[in-house]
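Customer ticket, subject: "Can you confirm the structure for (3S)-malyl-CoA thioesterase?"

Message body: Hello, I'm evaluating your service for our small team and ran a test protein. I'd like someone to confirm that this is what the system normally returns, since I don't have a reference to compare against.
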Amino acid sequence: MDPRQRPYRSVLYIPGSKERALDKARSLPVDAIIFDLEDAVAADEKENARETLKAALAEGGYGQKMRIVRINGLDTPWGRADAEAVREMDADVVLLPKVGSAADVDALAAITGDLPIWAMMETPRGMLNAAQIAAHPLLTGFVMGTNDLAKELQTRYRGDRLPMMTSLGLCLLAAKAEGLIAIDGVYNAFKDDEGLAVECAQGRDMGFDGKTLIHPAQVDIANAAFAPSEAEIDLARRQIAAFAEVEASGQGVAVVDGKIVENLHVATAREILAKAEAILALQAG
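Agent reply: Thanks for trying us out. I re-ran your input and got the following:
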C-alpha cells in the first residue's frame, strides 16, 4: 500500500523494551505503531531495547500496520546507536524527536540512508522552521509532540487547545504544502473517552490524518473519528454521480442536497471514497 494513501487514523506508542507489549501490538486494530526507544524506555534499558525491538520486528506479525521507530535524539548518548540499529531493522519509518531544523533531518539521513523519516514537532524552533523541515526530500510525516510543546511554551491546559492552535496550524500548513502525513498529539487522560472523542474530532476537522495514542483503549475512538462516516461516504457517491450525469448531458449544473457540486467537490468526494477503501483493505490484510 502506498504510504501516502494508507490510513493513519490510530498511531499507538509501544515501548520498544517490553516484549509483552510488542507482542500484544500485533493483534491491535491500529493503523500504525510507533515503537518507542525514547521516552518510554529507561536509560539503563536503552541498549537492551534496541535488541528486543529488532528481534520483534524480524519476527513480524504486524500485518499492514505502518512500523515507525522513534529513536533518541542524536544529541543524546543513545541517538547515533539507535539510528544505526534502525537502519538494520524491518521498519518503514524512523521518527526523530525534537526536530528544530532541516539540518537535524540531514544528520539523521547521513546515518539511516534512504529510510523515510518522520519528525516530532515539539519545540518552538521546530514550529518556526516547519516549512523548511517539511521540504526535506526524505521527510514524509510530522508527529505533533504536544506534551513537550506545552512545556516549552509554558501554556496552561485548556480543553479547546487554544494555546496550541498557532503551532498546530503552522505544522499543518507546512505538511499540506509538501504532501506529508500529519499526526495529532496524544490525549493524556486515557480513561476519558468523551474528552478523547472531542479532541479527535477537533484534529480531524483541522485536517490531521490521525492521532497518536498512549493506550489501546483509545484505538476505537480514534479509528472512528478519522474514518469517513457513512453519511460522508453516501454524500460523496451522490456528488460523483450527479456531476457525472451533468457532464454526460452537457447541460446545467450538478446540485446535491441544494448545494452546487463543482470539480473540487468531486475531487474531495473521490478522496473520501479512496480512504474508505484503504481502511477496508487494511482491515482485510
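A couple of notes from the result: The chain has twelve helices and ten strands. The CA atoms of residues 243 and 257 lie 13 Å apart. Feel free to reply with more questions.
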